[in-house]
Amino acid sequence: MDYKLGGAIMDKQLEVLSKSIEAIHDQAKRFGLDFFPMRFEICPADVLYAFGAYGMPTRFSHWTFGKNFYKMKLQYDYNLSRIYELVINSNPCYAFLLEGNDLIENKLVIAHVFAHSDFFKNNIYFSSTSRQMVETMSIYASKIREYEFKYGHREVEIFLDAALSIQEHIEPPSPFKTTNEELENPDSHHKETPYDDLWAIDSKPKEEVELEPNRKFPPKPTKDILGFIMENSSQLEDWQRDILAMVRDEMRYFWPQMETKIINEGWAAYWHTRIMRELDLNEDETIKFSQLHANILNTGGRQINPYLLGSKIFEDIERRWNNPSTEEKERYGRIGGKGREKIFEVRACEKDSSFLRNYLTQELVEELDLYLYQKVGTNWVVVEKDWEKVREGLVNRLINCGFPYIVVEDADYHRRGELYLKHRYEGVELDVPYLEKTLPHVYLLWGRPVHIETVIDGEPVVFSYDGRKNTKH
Amino acid sequence: MNCEFNIFREDWSLHRKGHLDQQRHQEKVREAIKKNLSDIIAEESIILGRGRKIVRVPIRSLEEYHFRFNYNKGKHCGQGSGGTSKGSVIGDSANGKGGISGAGDQEGIDYFEVEVTIDEIEQMLFEDLELPNLQDKDKPQIAIPSYDFRDIRRQGLMGNLDKKRTLLESIRRNAMKGRRVIDGIKPEDLRFKTWEDKIHYQSSAVVIAIMDTSGSMGTYEKYIARTFFFWMVRFLRTKYKQVDIVFIAHHTKAKEVTEEEFFSKGESGGTRCSSAYLLALDIINKRYPPSDYNIYPFHFTDGDNLPSDNETCLAAIKKLLPQVNVLGYGEIVNPYYRTSTLMDVLKRINDKCLKTIAVKDKAGVYQALRKFFTNSTS
């Protein structure tokens, strides 16, 4: 046994709790969950909510986090919602438990958290995330604090406002070794060691291609607006570029979490149920657990519940691979009895969009009573019940984590160094008032007029901001 | 089986980041309110909802803007409790929020609303307003209890410790022993600031609120005038314990009315502003001798005075000016037509006691308050 107790106090409660953790830990191992070493911390509500609002305990300071914190804390104070735990993708894996959880709540939460940790460790979309982000963000936070001290709190805040306004527009980290860029330029091969350049030292330098006067920049549209501005804006000071790099890095860390909400929560809910069933619970605990569990899987007011949807799909996969129908046997050659194996495979290779596209069945759509709705006049009306269309609608909302897909089309628009962005319109319009308020932020980063092309009422429209006013044509 | 876990319970009491950033957010809210004060104080919900303590104020500058989809134009995925069919209405957007707390997070809310108490608004609004040109008069009437820290004692409350004097005592004690150091602080070194109760006398003042209630004052003009007087009355009652306020309503004739009548009554008829000024003169002569009172008449009108009355009016104002501290004249400018107004006549007077302002829109009320109730010379 190599666990120790932090703080000086090892009171009764903590002793009981660590016994439970041990039992849950052993059970999770028996089930084959493969997780990072765990570090549990018990903390008071306002600390837990602060972590929730910042996404990370060590993250930098900004008023928007304060605003979120206030909102979340208010909901807690009014008993409207409650976070029981918070778990961080790191090695060791940090899990924060709410002080004041009772023992059975903690048991459920701990079982849940072990499954999250397993997911972080094994899902391919997390394979390229840093597991030291707690420390990294703490360094970022202190750098930003330094900049505030050096360049003024107000100055840094205004810049962060702008940087955060386009933080979602990055190239998501790719779980696969080769990136598109490498496929397109085969000679920019992946460097194995920092000294690889030495081997090429004798080869002739490539002839400089003369720049054609009409050459486009960037040569190919890029989705990484934040990175593009960071590298190419002519206006930025070093500290500002550094802030953009940090914001971008943090976003790349959070991205896989945003694209695996349903599958990750589903996985955790699936396992906390099974682990809890194996524990020695007394009658009171069993009842309390059932209540809690029912609460978690509750379908409240039209909202899709990721815990419910995700765990239902996992259970469905397990069932279909354990006892395939005759058709499944014949068409897909499923031999049966492979349910557990299959769900472990699914948790390793899917994200929300592919998880739903591949495994959300007609039966589930009907059982869960999923539908698409839309605004008709002043009413919100159910417009689609057909299971394939519902699945498609659901998957579409998950693409690019639900953010509009916008690329840098031209960074020398009008031959005046203006930035031309293009929204890849796919049927859903942008929020125009928001767009017009975001452009000045982008202008601040780029330093020259900015434009964005999108589609409104079926017509292409370009919105521009030139430093003084918004225009549209 | 090896156990790969630790459990910790630490002291988090110093983790204040969330609270600090929340404070910064609140500061920004206050900044935003202050910036929008001119719009906020003209909000009908405040003026009409008298007695309500909390108002909701939209703060658009505190949104976290980014490129996002138009929530109202997309298809969203929802979950029913079974048996939902195509065409079912699941919510209406009439209540603004769309009844949807759906897949997105708080989309559908168009702006961030904060709740502020009237008290907070008042605090910000009145912060740097004052009765201008206030003079000491013969008969100080307003007694305001106050206190003054003007004594130093050896005993007192720790919160009132006078650090500088305490240190000096410590130095002196050491110096008496011939030591040139600051060496510790002994109980006998402690010195405390102590206060004395005293009564502070303020000169008495009277504000004469004059409003045009003639037919040409439409709903809009009346709203502007009442908004101004609403805040003026609140301001005087908050900041000055005992300022008399006299209300005069006029059309062709002027009469003194009660506060309630002043704020609710509408009249009709032509306009003869001189009637109001003459009545004000009369009231001053009878009840508020200028030797004893600071006098402030404030008049709001659309300026559409009977041309024949202008000269009488001018004479009355000229007679009034030497007796008052400030005379405020606010003219509500009708955006649709302009005729020769009383304002043109008043331009002939050059007296720093006369302050005039043209109010063009709701936001002008704020400017009027600032102009009339600050000491800066216009």
Q: What would CATH call the class of the largest domain in chain B? A: Alpha Beta
Summarize the amount of helix of chain B as a percent range: 25-40%
| Overall body shape of chain B | flat
| Helix proportion range of chain A | 40-55%
First-last Cα distance of chain A: 69 Å
Number of strands of chain B: 13
Q: Major β-sheet of chain B, in short? A: 6 strands, mixed
- How many E strands of chain A? 10
* Parts with pLDDT < 50 across at least 5 consecutive residues of chain B: 94-110
- What class, by secondary structure content of chain A? alpha+beta
CATH topology of the largest domain in chain B: Rossmann fold
Strand order of the largest sheet of chain A: 6-7-8-9-10
Number of domains of chain B: 3
- For the CA atoms, what is the radius of gyration of chain B? 30 Å
